[in-house]
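The authors assume throughout that readers already know how a fold can be written as discrete tokens. For illustration, here is how one protein appears when written out as sequence plus structure tokens.
>
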Amino acid sequence: MSEPAPLSSRDDVAAGSDDVAAGSDDVAAGSAGVQPTPSSYEAARAELAEVMRALESGGQSLEESLELWKRGEALADLCQRWLDAASARLEDAIAARKDRSDE
């Protein structure tokens, strides 16, 4: 099963793409400009952790905080989609193994 395309926000699904990394458009980051989509789950998770630290530390304007929050939402959704795709691949592999053993 192919992995879905990354999102620019929770409500902006890049429908129709079958590959998270290869079919990626950039993830919009508002006033911070356009930031590239992380190329792996680990990179997205690490960036999400950085966004969370920045939000928790405070010190940003309201607009900067909102942009960080939007970026965090997009990264969290991207991570979840990667995890869902990995889970589906595992389920497919387990089912295929079971089918082979039933023959």
